Amino acid sequence: MLRVGLIQMAVGSCKKTNLQNAVKLIKQASDQGAKLITLPECFNSPYGTQYFGEYAENIPGNSSSTIADAAKANNVHVIAGSIPEREGDKLFNTCCIFDNKGEMIDSHRKVHLFDIDIPGKITFKESEVLTAGNKGTVFELENGVKIGVGICYDIRFPELAWKYRQEGAKVLVYPGAFNMTTGPAHWAKLQIARALDNQCFVMTASPARDLEATYHAWGHSMAVNSWGEILCEADAAEEVLVVDLDLNSLEETRKNVPISTQRMPECY
Ligand SMILES: NC(=O)CC(=O)C(=O)O
Questions:
Q1: Domain residues for 90?
Q2: Any idea where the CN hydrolase domain is (predicted)?
Q3: What ipTM goes with this model?
Q4: pTM beyond 0.95
Q5: Per residue in 216-245, pLDDT tens?
Q6: In principle, which of 33, 80, 158, 255 could form an S-S bond with 67, CB 3.0–4.6 Å?
Q7: Nearest CA to 98 among 133, 128, 122, 74?
């Protein structure tokens, strides 16, 4: 069993408050026994291209060291959602990953930038200000369980998740901030799809919905098992979800439906 915590947190315009809130909610999840905790995409800043430059920080920096300290204080691994990262004259959407001693063991820069145009609904172009990451990210817990990490729009690309599966991942984690158009249409379905086509657990953490913000997050953070079942799901408000991932059930799925050894790549 791996007990995990998904933090769907209210993110506002005050970075200091956002960081304090993240620390408080990490403790709440840890107090309920979670050993691997994920924060949402853009947890220190409102989500929007107009904010990224103002809220961006170097890594290491104040936001990353605040979460590193919280990981150590609570003896938990933390997948720190994402923050706008500044490196030289470039900005990235970056997730830092901390072990239970507060060491940053890996980081993931959003590989697929969120550039979409749905007329009358939503137009968003992260590439106007962000640079894309250029690698996938799989890290390992102390017990050997491998975790693949993507950020939000990365979930739409099955090849990335499949690469993680080939590298041994059993859990796929996507901090994400879907919206009121794509959220109800795609958010849960994409998680179930990635869970089924890779026979992995999928976990997501979204910012809570704030109708006064410029971007309205869908929320609905959730965990899905390798059978495609939703194990837990938040609504739109701030909430900490804690759930056990039964790794034996994943092995059972992989044994019963052995798709990883039945591929016919010569036909595709
Ligand atoms: N915000 C994102 O990166 C992705 C998203 O909202 C979507 O794919 O839809």
A1: 2-267
A2: 2-247
A3: 0.98
A4: yes
A5: 999 999 999 999 999 999 999 999 999 999
A6: 80
A7: 74
